[in-house]
Amino acid sequence: MNTENSTIMAENIQRYMDIKGVSAQDVCNDLKIAPTTFSDWRHGRTYPRISKIEMLAKYFKCTKADLVEPKEKIDAMRQEASDETRLLSDEDVMILRKYRQLNELGKTKLIERLDELNVLGYVKKNQ
Predict the structure, then answer these.
(1) For the chain, which end, N or C, has fewer CB atoms within 10 Å of the first or last residue's CB respectively?
(2) Which of 72, 48, 77, 46 has the alpha carbon at shortest distance from 60?
(3) Band of residue 65 on the pLDDT scale cut at 50, 70, 90
């Protein structure tokens, strides 16, 4: 892992600690992480495995991308998504709400089915 990625992760961990109002010791106690390991992540000396990134994202109530991507990139992506959501129809919003009610397996199955419909040609002509 390059040092730039470790530095980005370290900055994001610190930012989310500040947002949540927790100390390094709190995080270590709550997540059962060795203090030396967490210190290495927090100071950009090492980079956590994906399972630990997922655990941190759940703890901080953020996405994995929020931890591994530069804050500026995440902010830009969120702004772009916000701009796009202003264009949603009532039907689009209803579909999104139903999607969010699905568990992970249901979401996976729905996406697979949507891909099948695209392959079968059930797409708008201007797409």
Answers:
(1) C
(2) 48
(3) confident
Contacts of 16 (CB under 8 A, 6+ apart): 56, 60, 62, 66, 67
Q: State pLDDT tens for residues 90-103.
A: 788 888 889 889 99
Q: Which CATH architecture has domain 3-76?
A: Orthogonal Bundle (1.10)
Domain boundary assignment for the chain: 3-76, 88-127
Query: What letters, b where the CB count within 10 A reaches 16 and e where it falls short, cover 99-115?
Result: eeeeeeeeeeeeeeeee
What are the tokens at 59?
């703890």
B/e letters for 66-95, b = 16+ CB within 10 Å, e = fewer, are bbbbeeeebeeeeeeeeeeeeeeeeeeeee
Give the Cα separation of 31 and 9 in Å (integer): 17
pLDDT of residue 96: 85
Helices (H) and strands (E) in the chain, counts: 8, 0
